[in-house]
Specification:
It contains 2 helices and 8 strands, in the order E-H-E-E-E-E-H-E-E-E. It is globular, with a radius of gyration of 14 Å. The longest helix has 13 residues. Helix 1 runs antiparallel to helix 2. Strand 2 and strand 3 form a beta hairpin. Helices cover 20% and strands 39% of the residues. The strands form 2 sheets. The chain has a 4-stranded mixed beta sheet with strand order 1-4-3-2, covered by helices on one side. Strands 5-8-7-6 form a 4-stranded mixed beta sheet, with helices on one face. It has one domain: 2,3-Dihydroxybiphenyl 1,2-Dioxygenase, domain 1 (Roll), CATH 3.10.180. The two termini are 26 Å apart. It is of the alpha/beta class and 122 residues long. It holds the Pfam family Glyoxalase.
């Protein structure tokens, strides 16, 4: 459904360091950079960071990245913890979503709720 998603961040270098770290276990990396605008993805950039350009406070976004397996969800979580991210929910099955929904949730440097999720059975 989505072609790409972009979020605005207060500190591009801090956010880039966070996403460089937590997206690597999911098979994504920094693919493009135009000044302070950075695109991440596997084959093409589908997640973008850019600096805040409007006045006021940003609102929390929820971003869920697909993980190829449960080990990648755990690696995402471990990378986030190592980078100092606040853990919202450690990796676990979320049966209220569906029987094989396995996800971990953390906060990025701007307070966004960032998730890695695998839908495959263990």
């Amino acid at each position: 459904m989505l072609d790409h998603l972009g979020i605005q961040v207060r500190d591009v270098p801090a956010s880039a360091a966070f996403y460089d770290t937590v997206l690597a276990p999911l098979g994504a990396r920094r693919l493009m950079q135009f000044g302070d605008v950075i695109g991440y993805g596997g084959d093409s950039p589908d997640f973008w960071l850019s600096p805040v350009t409007s006045p006021g406070n940003a609102h929390e976004a929820h971003i869920a990245f697909t993980a190829p397996d449960r080990a990648a969800v755990r690696a995402f979580h471990d990378a986030a913890v190592a980078s100092g991210a606040e853990v919202l929910h450690a990796p676990r099955v979320w049966p209220e979503y569906h029987a094989t929904y396995y996800g971990a949730f953390v906060r990025d440097p701007d307070g966004n709720n960032v998730e890695a999720v695998c839908h495959a059975p263990d």
